[in-house]
Amino acid sequence: MTASLKPLVVITGASSGIGAAMAQHFADAGHALLLIARRLDRIEALGLENAMCRSVDVTDIAALRAAVTEAEAAYGPVDLLINNAGLMQLGQLDTQDPTEWQNMFDVNVLALLNATQVVLGGMKARGAGTILNVSSIAGKKSFPNHAAYVGTKFAVSSISENLREEVSGDGVRVMTICPGAVETELLGHTTDQEIIDGYEAWKEDMGGVLVADDIARTALFMYTQPQNVNIRDVVIAATRQP
Ligand code: NDP
């Protein structure tokens, strides 16, 4: 490991949007990185130094474990896991394809548990470490056509709070960041064009939304507090978002 390199940060969903911006900010801060997503070309195209890029589907716990083991052998123990990978497929429950809510729960919830399990034992043994879960304002309140997505994000927030209580005595911090609307590729997975159009109009009415850098900057601020300081939960949205 390079002497001046800061501890290993694992970011899931680093190939676009918020995860890619976080990768850039943590690389700029001098951290070793393990960047995970399915689209390897997109994470490699970030061109970051000391960044191991691996094509991993976060629903595959064995593949996650293998990637983390490889990165720890190169860079030392994981000090921060950012569970950022996520999927939003808005829809109405009477008409939505059930595979869409299956996918969202698999990626947004079960895969977050997978990645957490992979790193948690090491953090507890070391008595230090941070898990930052990307929830959403949709983990705090409901929105039209969001029933399944909101369900996943309420789950992220409640799992995080429960885990925080469980591991606080081990010196491990668990944090959530809950963004409002951010301009990324997230809406692109929704298949209902009417819902997409409505969402875009809502963003336009607000005069625009946040950019991924806003979230990444905040995540770095949360992480870089002293280890005995845990910013448990941050809600961040465009000023004009109601
Ligand atoms: P993007 O669609 O731009 O990014 C989603 C990321 O998740 C991609 O890197 C994608 O990589 C990855 N991902 C999805 N499925 C998998 C999978 N099975 N295995 C590995 N990686 C996967 O959206 P955002 O940047 O907006 O989303 C990031 C997080 O922020 C999500 O959890 C989202 O719910 C949350 N969020 C976003 C908000 C917004 O308005 N944009 C608001 C609030 C929260 P790949 O496809 O290459 O695998």
UniProtKB/TrEMBL annotation:
The gene is sdh. GO terms for molecular function: serine 3-dehydrogenase activity. Belongs to the short-chain dehydrogenases/reductases (SDR) family. It is an enzyme of class 1 (oxidoreductase). It comes from the Bacteria. PROSITE patterns: ADH_SHORT. This is Serine 3-dehydrogenase. InterPro entries: NAD(P)-bd_dom_sf, Sc_DH/Rdtase_CS, SDR_fam.
